[in-house]
Amino acid sequence: MEKVVVSGVTYNKNEAKIEIMRVPDVPGVAAKIFMPIADANIVIDMIIQTSSTEKGYAAMAFTVPSPILPRH
To answer: Is residue 25 exposed (0-12), middle (13-18) or buried (19+ Cβ within 10 Å)?
Structure first.
């Protein structure tokens, strides 16, 4: 399997957005990406997959809500 490249992570006070580029567009790849996240009990509230201009690849982005932390 080819190396998947994380192109960026952005953050605001409500969520973090992670983008992954050059994801091989074949069955089972999304499960390989998201199962370890689910196993770590990390909540993902939105997933977007788009086709790439490069044949056979896709791009994925997902958001993770920020936990509500106690204020001191």
So the answer is: middle
